[in-house]
Amino acid sequence: MDNRIVFVLSILEWLTVYFLMGIMDKENQLSWKKLIGFTFTIAFITSMTNACRLPFHSAILMGCMVIGFMILTRAKFLRILSDVILSSSVFVLYQLIITIVLKVIVGDITENGKLLFVLLVLAVILAKLVGKSSRLEYFLERYYRQNRGIILIIIISLAVLASMVTHIIDDKESFFWENHLELLILTIIYAIINVVLAVVIYQNAKNKERLRIHEEHAAYMQGLNKELRRREHEYKNHLNAIIGIGTCRKDDPLQAVIDYTNKLLATESQKKAVDYISDNLNVASFISYERKRAAELNLQFNCYIEKPFPAYKIPDFDMIELLANLINNAFEATAHNKNAREIYLIMETNQIRISNSIEDESLAGSMSKIGVQGYSRKGAGRGYGVSNILAICNHHNIQHKTYIEEERFIFELNFQ
């Protein structure tokens, strides 16, 4: 095929892989200048390897992609490698399916430049459209990005296995009989070992994740236990005070006890607005941990959680993920304020609101961009906390909105 056609087709191939990589992780997204420069570089390398008939040209291209992304994004090697391999594997699978289907209809398409151009343009469009799926984003965040190492090993093992099986099947003259009988047996053994290895690695990763969750939960519970002990001590003090009033007051001790109790109830009613002890242990312990962190950052973190705990139709692990991202964003936004350093979290029936004080009036001008994946007022490479919030909201059909009211930025979630 003519080298100029190869150059054009390689641009489309690379753009497809790039958009797929953007789906795997939003941090893989490049600025337009970097993308244009990198695209033409990859296309040029593809044309040269094709013209020179270099062996292992696919491996060379993949290596160039990994190195280029590491330079342009400053990301870690294994993360980029797994994203490149998985994105390339998805694209190769697309090419394989299209080639097999069209071979039955129109014959061999590998030398049909015009048809290849149309198919690759379609691949670019599909990759761009698929990236808009919030459900896919939720799936990748929950399952892929936390298990990259395992998935990378499985993909490499499958690639080696596929190449071995293909080599055996292609040599039809000695298939099953002469030279390839031992290779066939080794291939089967290799496949079994890889299945066992993948299961063991997956279980090990799950055990590590459970251990991490238990350690985090223990840290959350420690703060909650301290607060409960403090309240228990406070409760005993009040009981002792009531006993003292009842036994020591000679003039109408019953009325004195009633007056003291009424004052105590009034005080507790005022405290209700900052109450975070709820009957959801996971949320209560997490909020306790965040209150401790707020104190360390010299922030005033006020909470109110309705009792009984509202029946939000969302798993606890997604609820904690939502709260973690909402609170972290509010903390980071407020930490730079000189005077107004207050954050309020309110959890009521069918609604969660978190608000933080703002001193920067320019925030109103960027309101429309908040929630756009990759956008952040805190600089490049940020903004993924809000993206995670939106992915969970879209997955569970939670309505969300942001607005400014009385010099406070408010992020509101409404559950149906």
How is this structure best described in words?
The protein is of the alpha+beta class and 416 residues long. It is 66% helix and 8% strand. It contains 12 helices and 5 strands. It has helices at 3-24, 32-51, 57-73, 77-105, 113-130, 134-144, 148-170, 181-248, 253-271, 281-296, 316-335, 384-395; strands spanning 300-305, 342-348, 351-357, 399-405, 408-414. Helix 11 links the parallel strand 1 and strand 2. Helix 1 (3-24) crosses helix 4 (77-105), helix 7 (148-170) runs antiparallel to helix 8 (181-248) and helix 8 (181-248) packs across helix 10. The longest helix is centred in the middle third of the chain and has 68 residues, at 181-248. The two termini are 57 Å apart.
Name the features:
single chain; 416 residues; alpha+beta; five-stranded mixed β-sheet; 66% helix
The coarse overall form would be elongated
Strand content: 5-15%
Helix content: 55-70%
| Computed structural class | alpha+beta
The low-pLDDT segments are 364-383
Number of helices: 12
Order of helices and strands: HHHHHHHHHHEHEEHEE
- Total beta strands: 5
The averaged pLDDT comes out at 76
Describe the largest sheet. 5 strands, mixed
Spatial separation of the terminal alpha carbons: 57 Å
Gyration radius (Cα, Å) is 30 Å
Strands side by side in the biggest sheet: 1-2-3-5-4
